[in-house]
Amino acid sequence: MSETERTFVMVKPDGVQRGLIGKIISRFEERGLKLVGAKFIQIDQDLAEDHYGEHEDKPFFDDLVEFITADPVMAMVWEGQDATRQVRSMVGETDPAESPPGSIRGDFGLDLGRNVIHASDHEDPGANEREIDLFFDEDELVEWERVDETWLY
Ligand code: RTP
Ligand code: MG
Q: Which residues participate in ATP binding (predicted)?
């Protein structure tokens, strides 16, 4: 059995404005992942620049920061077996046009710059923990047991 881990997920401002928070949360719940942290916030400039720091030299960086700070986001931590990889496979590719139907970006997105959701990169070791630390204090994360866990694992 793979390791249980936590991953960081965020419904971006376009997903919030389009009323997709509930649908997106339902997908992760139904998959069997466990919500252990959530906050509805508006990201400020500093947090945006930290979060997307890996892209600071890219031509799209300023637009990306402007977009992610423009309106509220729903920031969450989800826990489960191999959660980072599982969530990324549910999210799809960076470009919705390359994302298969059935994935979140493939079902809800059309445009690269309006791709509805962020999730920690499973190919970047430690990205999940780094992003969780950036957005959440330890005491904002809740340890609990889902009643169906015995039947998931
Ligand atoms: P995210 O970090 O937002 O979850 O997206 P991702 O891992 O799939 O993609 P990443 O490479 O980390 O890029 C971050 C966001 O920047 C925008 N982007 N624009 N114009 C471009 O070529 C370009 N490339 C990336 C996308 O909105 C992407 O989600
Ligand atoms: Mg990324």
A: 12, 60, 88, 94, 105, 115
Ligand 1 probe mutation, 10, 60, 111, 135, most atoms within 8 A of CB: 60
Domains in the chain, ordered, with CATH?
4-43+73-142 (3.30.70.141)
Catalytic positions are: 118
Global confidence as pTM = 0.97
CA 70, CA 100: separation in Å to the nearest integer? 28
- Cα of 16 vs centre of ligand 1, distance in Å, is 18
Residue 2: predicted pLDDT = 82
Q: What are the tens digits of pLDDT across the range 41-69?
A: 999 999 999 999 999 999 999 999 999 99
- Residue 98: CB within 6 Å of ligand 1? no
- Assembly ipTM: 0.96
The answer to whether 132 touches 5, Cβ cutoff 8 Å, is no
Q: Which residues pair with 103 in a beta bridge?
A: 101
**Residue 129 Cα distances to 29, 84, 100, 146, 148, angstroms:** 21, 10, 27, 22, 26
The terminus-to-terminus CA distance of the chain in angstroms comes to 8
Ligand nearest to the CA of 55: 1
The reply, when asked if residue 115 is annotated as ligand binding, is yes
